[in-house]
Amino acid sequence: MSKTPRKDLHPRTQAVHHGIRRSQYGEMAEAIFLTQGFVYDSAEQAEARFQASGPDEFIYARYGNPTSRMFEDRIAALEGTEDAFATASGMAAVNGAMFSMCAPGDHVVAARALFGSCLYVLDLLARFGVEVSYVDGTDLDQWRDAIRPGTRAVFFETISNPGLEVIDMKAVADLAHAAGAVVVADNVFATPVFSRAVELGADVVVYSATKHIDGGGRALAGVICGSRDYIRNTVEPYLKHTGGAISPFHSWIMLNGLATMDLRVRAQADSAAAIATALQGHAGLTRVIYPGLPDHPQHDLAMAQMGSGGTMIAVEVAGGRDAAFAALNRLRIIRISNNLGDAKSIATHPATTTHQRLSDDAKAHLGITPGLLRISVGLEHAQDLIEDLRQALEG
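^ thats the sequence. predicted structure below, dont judge the formating
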């Protein structure tokens, strides 16, 4: 009892309606199929399903679930890929995307500016015999020198965490594809709202759905988007046997998040632009980093790839760690936490939290200074957030 909307509909419409699977009861809201297993009419049917399951035939919740399949279908439609596999967290998605395709002796090229846990996953690949080369993501010459015939994959965050560097996706994808490599893009900061990753050459797109897709800081989830062959023949066997699948309840939360995501993210990005503009030149800051500002090194690229500066801002507080901590502790509306993409605005000190495991030299190379703060802009009124940041910086 499902009707799939036309693919020419606006993404905001698809985010509400695409992929719905209605039961015989004709429920309006998406149902939660809170079950770990499924019943077969006969032993022969069970045998047939284990040999080749159809699109609406399920075996075990670790392999797939109707609620999870609705989420997968919907996010794949928004991202422009053939298929998707939902995971228990964003890091399960990164792990699943990379480990499912790599084997000892393979070569991976990755941008150096990555979330700390993404760097850990790449370190694990190296421990298992995968050669990993790191490059400065904005330097195309370094990508060109590092990618070689036989390179298995390239991996980058389309906008880096926390320095907000913007990767030239098409240029990197062209280099990778010329060598036969798979392009894996972590697109969390760009969000599905502003994403053009597939159009620009990404073969695989991963999200921490915990962030903007949920949008309310309620649940962990991730998703891997790609070709049907890659998702069902490479990713699914790895994840269903290693246990990284999403729960049906969390899939249901993500489905509801998708319905309002476009409205939320655009409002957050508008506020982020207003806040970044208002903070420029503030005496308490040595720099404001926001791809939507004309002085950002990749501003033109960000506008071409996304049409927006996004929802994230980074600022460097004059006076280093002590001054940054003092400003954090004076915030009244913005909360100190390490999540992002929430309806509530969040401030983080990356050097001592999300990227604390990096060496001082590595932090310095990535611009993660003692005074750097990462700000995820929420749904509060922009002027309230501007005033909160000003009073926190001015003491």
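The chain has 14 helices and twelve strands.
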